[in-house]
Design brief:
homodimer, Carbamate kinase, 2 domains, 8-stranded mixed sheet
Chain lengths: ~400, ~400
């Protein structure tokens, strides 16, 4: 049996924590061949970024990748040493040594292929193989450039390796117990899910549930890798992300509630309602690599429309800079920016086949006197934009109405 | 014109110092193609070693190399960013990316070959190429292991790259002004040398002058790379290490005085004087990788001999552990360990052809009432072992007698 485990930065923040993780791994290695993917220790990445910015306001992407990749190279070597320290045979590999070849795009490279040959060789020698997460190289050559995989990169490494070597399990260890059907800090009654489908997990991740990054889940879905999310120190069962199975039909059709307060809304008021306007509006933020989320266009009476969209708070200044000229060019009446907004979503594959969930969601918000600013939906998700200070109240009310104490 | 420059860890200890080094490099890059070899920032290497030892008392050599190599990967990326920050085109390379292939021996790998292709390509694109010092890889493949070159490794990297790309100059920047003919902290009259031959530099380095490691000098000698040693921040001429030239005949035959107080002497008293004894004595420390220096065997009256040798202070405990069983096995009367010793050497190619230097050295020490414990010589060096607390007095007296204020 081959297991791929991933430990995040907070699980290996100190040498003591590395030693504790090593003991867990060694225990597991008694019964399975283990590949471990590890993130950089604690704040290492942030410290490296801070040094870089002292030297150059806009550090070069390639150099940044080469710099940041040292964090995982360091933690992987230290974890291998910690395993040696307790008598467990182990070897550490960089992303490149582990056969992870990416496209030639710095900072958020996608994996092109994984050559698991060395990984399998090392496992067959009896080693626990510790792989530096978050990184790859551009070619199978010593002079190849080092790339990093962007946000959620170490999770992606773990799932990609699991797929490449056809591992029997892929386990993401983190600082939460698993996936809850609402944020347990907001709803004490929130229930940890034993399983969740890839689709549902993707919708939850996209709508503010921060436990798993969408990219790793997508990869798991494509290569059919079941992903266990569990706590790195507690011995409690986590949540298994997997294909939807028939049993899912008899459970609560609403699988989870996500809320996201990291939202800023831009509205272009009274732009001419003619072909090409939307394209013009969204070209500039795309160029500036700003992720656009909820887009809503309202028809106006006089041949004009209001066009609004949301972005992450962090992109606010960048977005303002690119949108002001656009508003001018399109003769918009004004550009309104609203940071007092939040997204609330209900997610579940059951929503697709059970009508009436949208109605129930809207009427619940209405009875709580929460105003809905806009609405978007997918096949298995309904999202409302509401005022930010009402977010917690909305989550609690929806959790109750949809009886999420029952999973 | 191609120049290889090397900056040591203290020259890049902080982001401010990295920025200062970047300004010097950019200035130089106006007139030459520049390759820069850089060490890890300040205490980075020591900090990494300390973490490793917390996790494993005897860290694995391969993992240690992978860990330590991050230090230079980090500093090289940061220096490239600092160059970008002041508008200088630059790219950083790991040892492997720079084409440095070493033998498969961790911690003190020797360079097998250097493929300068990418280095030349990057220079021809107009880049300053910043190379991580002290490291290489075992093969030209992405899964190759990372190796480090051991003490003086970044100097070795610089000389090896200079040889491979036939650079016009190789410049080692450090925290001293150059090579002095005695330690200026001991002899204020010590004179900085404009030039010194490879042979003389090797003898001085071997006898306690810490500025340059022997290995880089040897490599320079083999590939005929002239090495400039100069201060990384001050604009003063340094010392050029080069082939001996005819002019050297008309200068002071004594080129320098080295002293080394980092010396422990072991003496096996009254061991049987028969074939194979010396081999037996030195086998154990060789196995334990302890460097043996001054070896002296004195004939005893009763078919027995006293055998003594010196080692670095740091190896004291390790040496005691291996020598005690040897002393027992050989029926030595006793094993005497003396840490109150120092080595004093005079070095100069002129010594070879000028008789009388040994006599002059011994009589000078005698007139200073300094007892000579033992003597060794090479063609261009005479070394005396003396009491440690007389070392400074000896250096001063010899500097005066050999008129080293004249170079």
């Amino acid at each position: 049996m081959i297991v791929v485990q991933k430990y995040g930065g907070s699980s290996v923040a100190t040498t003591e924590k590395i030693a504790a993780v090593a003991r867990r791994i060694a225990e597991r290695a008694k019964k399975a061949q283990v590949v471990v993917v590890v993130s950089a220790m604690g704040d290492t990445t942030d410290e490296l970024i801070s040094m870089a910015k002292q030297l150059c306001p806009m550090p070069d992407d390639r150099e940044m990748d080469k710099l940041l990749a040292t964090g995982e190279q360091e933690s992987s070597a230290l974890l291998a040493m910690a395993l040696h320290g307790i008598g467990q045979q182990a070897v550490s590999l960089t992303g490149g040594q582990a056969g992870i070849i990416t496209e030639k795009v710095a900072q958020k490279a996608r994996i092109r292929k994984v050559d698991g040959t060395r990984l399998i060789e090392e496992l067959d020698k009896g080693n626990v193989v510790v792989v530096a997460g978050f990184q790859g190289i551009t070619e199978n050559a010593s002079w190849a450039d080092i790339t990093t995989l962007g946000r959620g990169g170490s999770d992606t490494t773990a799932v990609a390796l699991a797929a490449a070597i056809k591992a029997d399990a892929c386990e993401i260890y983190t600082d939460v117990d698993g996936i809850y059907n609402a944020d347990p800090r907001v709803v004490p009654e929130a229930v940890k899910l034993d399983t969740i489908s890839y689709e549902e997990m993707l919708e939850l991740a996209g709508q503010g549930a921060r436990v798993m990054h969408s990219r790793a889940v997508e990869l798991g879905q494509i290569y059919d890798v079941e992903i266990l999310v569990a706590h790195s120190a507690r011995n409690v069962p986590g949540t298994l992300i997997k294909k939807e199975d028939p049993d899912m039909e008899i459970r609560n059709p609403v699988r989870g509630i996500a809320h996201d307060t990291d939202v800023t809304r831009f509205t272009l008021v009274a732009v001419p309602d003619k072909p090409g306007v939307a394209a013009k509006v969204f070209h500039a933020p795309a160029e500036a690599k700003i992720n656009i989320d909820v887009i809503v266009q309202n028809m106006g009476a006089d041949g004009c429309a209001d066009l609004s969209f949301t972005i992450a708070d962090a992109d606010y200044e960048k977005a303002l800079k690119v949108m002001e000229p656009v508003a001018k060019e399109l003769n918009a009446k004004k550009l309104v920016v609203d940071q007092n907004v939040a997204k609330i979503s209900i997610v579940g594959t059951g929503i697709r086949s059970h009508p009436g969930y949208a109605d129930k969601m809207f009427s619940t918000l209405a009875s709580e006197e929460i105003n809905i600013l806009s609405i978007t939906t997918s096949e298995i998700r309904i999202t409302c934009l509401i005022e930010r200070d009402k977010a917690q109240q909305a989550v609690k009310a929806l959790h109750k109405v949809f009886e999420l104490e029952k999973v």
